[in-house]
Design brief:
alpha+beta; tt1808, chain A; 4 helices; 21% helix
Length: 213
């Protein structure tokens, strides 16, 4: 497929004006580049930094170890999440940095439609998309229990959880802190997620405090 590119606010590049879902999925089988699909428009995924890659590997390794032999399953950044919008949005495909899926009936084919938890690793170049565009899309998913945003340049994680009163945000700070996902019986120490990650000199790698709402 011949793909021309246009700019996307924040990061990535955009393709020609419109592709059907079928055309997008067919093109992905032949393309060495990953694209996110937003209602007919596709955006190439930018490369990731060393800290991003280290956090991603630590995260997927930790999730895999804790979910081994259980109903839920962890996936890395090659698994898409599919989101449906009412007209005019249509279908969206995103590549989160990691996800947990628990419904064995959720279709495969390289994507999931009913994830339980979605993870994004935040850098300044992706912040606007991860905190606004993707957040809005992810929180539409009825299956989603938590959206976890992991800061790349400091030991800080934002967890948004579904509660009976709506979505509640928790900020978790410091390498001694721990993320808890109680419905899945999982705990993730920040020290494990940030293993081998070197923070910028302006960042204190062990700030005081812990979890805060």
């Amino acid at each position: 497929m011949n793909i021309g590119v246009l700019s996307r606010p924040g990061t990535g590049v955009r393709s020609q004006p419109y592709l059907t879902v079928e055309e997008f999925l067919a093109s992905e089988e032949l393309s060495p580049i990953k694209y996110e699909y937003l209602g007919g428009v596709i955006y190439a995924m930018a490369g990731a930094s060393d800290p991003h890659n280290r956090i991603a590997i630590n995260l997927t390794s930790a999730l895999h170890a804790r979910l081994r032999g259980r109903r839920c399953e962890a996936f890395g950044s090659d698994m898409k999440v599919r989101i449906y919008y009412e007209s005019p949005g249509g279908t969206y495909f995103y590549y989160p940095d990691a996800m947990i899926a628990c419904n064995p009936a959720d279709p495969g084919h390289g994507w999931r439609e009913q994830p339980a938890v979605l993870f994004e690793i935040i850098s300044e170049s992706t912040r606007q998309i991860d905190e606004r565009e993707k957040r809005t899309a992810y929180l539409r998913l009825h299956s989603l229990e938590a959206y976890v945003r992991i800061e790349q340049d400091r030991p800080e994680i934002i967890v948004e959880r579904r509660t009976l009163e709506g979505w509640k945000m928790e900020r978790i700070i410091g390498l001694e802190a721990v993320i808890s996902l109680p419905t899945l019986e999982i705990e993730l120490p920040l020290a494990e997620l940030y293993e081998r990650v070197t923070f910028p000199k302006s960042t204190d790698s062990s700030p005081p405090g812990g979890a805060s709402a």
